[in-house]
Design a protein that fits this description.
Blueprint lengths: L5 E7 L14 E11 L5 E5 L27 H8 L5 E4 L7 E3 L24 E3 L1 H13 L3 E6 L6 E2 L5 E2 L5 H12 L6 E4 L14 H18 L8 E7 L3 H11 L6 E6 L3 E2 L5 H5 L2 H22 L4 E7 L2 E2 L12 H14 L2 E6 L19 H12 E10 L5 E8 L2 H6 L4
Parallel strand pairs: 3-4, 3-16, 4-7, 5-6, 7-10, 10-11, 11-12, 12-14, 13-15, 14-16
Antiparallel strand pairs: 1-18, 2-17, 8-9, 17-18
Helix pairs in contact: 4-5, 5-7, 7-8, 8-9
The chain binds 2-acetamido-2-deoxy-beta-D-glucopyranose (NAG).
InterPro entries: GH, Glyco_hydro_79
Membrane topology: Peripheral membrane protein
Function: Endoglycosidase which is a cell surface and extracellular matrix-degrading enzyme. Cleaves heparan sulfate proteoglycans (HSPGs) into heparan sulfate side chains and core proteoglycans.
């Protein structure tokens, strides 16, 4: 047993306080026992698939940030990843369920995404060329990234209702793709199946019964392809918006040790063009209430229906539809982001993936210049200071003072404590 070195992060909203003079607060950190534990690599950021003509509210903030289009040789890009030592990167998003991998025998032609308003999510199917996948892996391995890849879970299914999709998942293309990936020696930490296809759904949904069976199939594929490897990747699902009944059913049907991490998405601030984004970000009651219920119920669902699994936030960008312009890429957004990192940790979330590393208005890096936005530094700060052990805190301070305590990451960071 080593010493527990608690480290604090104060996120304070001090607007109006100066007029009243100094106020004093009592904060008690209980360092005797951990209340939760995150993964060693808790901070994660996403890469999405959107082409440059993806627009919301007459704003097209994706540029060439999508996985097929990104300038992988931009010098800032590699450096931004390397600063974390090992940054988790999740490749996924709405269009992942329309991506064809250009390997093996194909059931659909492999063509780049094209804007088509009538199609699901406004685009045709897209293509991941293996030459692109090679380039991407070269960069990811060079930068020490820990990769989660979201597989196309609509492959082979057909529309059966307004949003419902039916039929079993056709795993043939994913199988060829995973086989190719392993044959090239590319290290994938985790394979995730599907993006936002659970119920309630945004654009397309699959029943929990069918999804559970598909997870059993993915597990069998992974077992077979990785049988000679010394480490086996994790399996993640469903990367959707949490509902207790759908998630419970998925865990029940897929059964023990199939889904290793249950992923869910959070967009608790509202649509990107909402004029009240900043008010919500700076409202402690809103911050406390808008996601704690989800975290708590997911923790409970896992405890009852899938104690073998852990909870991950697979995608979270604050404001949905590409983020809030002049909000998600500015300093004020960190009041939301850091609070989320603290809260998610308290509920035993192992990994928290920020939408996005680059792309949209919520990128940690600017879409065109690759310059870090304020939240990039918040992510890096958290990553370097906050250890795995989460401690409980009693605060008798104003609700505007948000306090979270973790064991420190190392002895070095405990020195930094004095300067926080
Ligand atoms: C990126 O930076 C440029 C230049 O500062 C700015 O005009 C643009 O709005 C930024 N893009 C995004 C998506 O934040």
């Amino acid at each position: 047993m080593g010493f527990v070195l608690p480290l604090f992060v104060f996120v304070a909203y001090l607007y109006g306080v100066s007029a009243q003079g100094p106020t004093y607060a009592t904060i008690i950190v209980k360092s005797a026992a951990k209340i939760a534990e995150t993964d060693d690599q808790f901070i994660c950021a996403t890469l999405d698939w959107w082409p440059s003509d993806k627009c919301n509210y007459h704003d097209c903030p994706w540029g060439k940030s999508g996985v097929p289009y990104l300038d992988l040789s931009h010098p800032t890009f590699a450096k931004a990843i390397q600063a974390f030592g090992h940054l988790r990167i999740r490749i996924g998003g709405s269009l992942q369920d329309k991506v064809v991998y250009n390997v093996g025998a194909l059931k659909y032609p492999c063509h780049p995404f094209k804007k088509m308003d009538k199609w699901l999510f406004g685009f045709t199917k897209g293509c991941l060329y293996m030459s692109r996948w090679d380039e991407l892996n070269l960069l990811l391995s060079k930068t020490g990234a820990i990769v989660t890849f979201g597989l196309n879970a609509l492959y082979g299914r057909h529309k059966t209702g307004k949003v419902a999709w039916g039929g079993a998942w056709d795993s043939s293309n994913a199988r060829e793709f995973i086989k190719y990936t392993v044959s090239k020696g590319y290290h994938i930490d985790s394979w995730e199946l599907g993006n936002e296809l659970s119920e309630p759904a945004v654009g397309a949904s699959v029943s929990a019964e069918q999804y559970g069976k598909d997870m059993i199939e993915l597990n069998a594929i992974i077992k077979e392809i990785y049988k000679n490897s010394h480490s086996r990747p994790l399996i993640l699902a469903p990367g959707g918006f949490f509902s207790a009944s759908w998630y419970a059913k998925l865990l029940e049907i897929s059964g023990p040790n199939v889904v290793n991490a249950v992923t869910h998405h959070l967009y608790n601030l509202g649509p990107g063009n909402d004029p009240h984004l900043v008010d919500r970000i700076l409202d402690p009651h809103y911050l406390s209430q808008s996601t704690s219920d989800t975290f708590q119920k997911l923790q409970q669902t896992i405890k009852v229906h899938g104690p073998w699994a852990s909870a991950w936030v697979g995608e979270s960008g604050g404001a949905y539809n590409s983020g809030g312009r002049h909000v998600s890429n500015t300093f004020v957004d960190s009041f939301w982001y850091l609070d989320q990192l603290g809260m998610a940790s308290k509920y035993n979330t192992k990994v928290y993936c920020r939408q996005t590393l680059i792309g949209g208005n919520y990128g940690l890096l600017n879409t065109t210049t690759f310059t870090p936005n304020p939240d990039y530094y918040s992510a890096l700060f958290w990553h370097r200071l906050m250890g795995k052990g989460v401690l409980s805190v009693d605060s008798k301070a104003s609700a505007h003072l948000r306090v979270y305590a973790h064991c420190s990451k190392s002895r070095v960071s405990s020195t930094l404590l004095q300067n926080v």
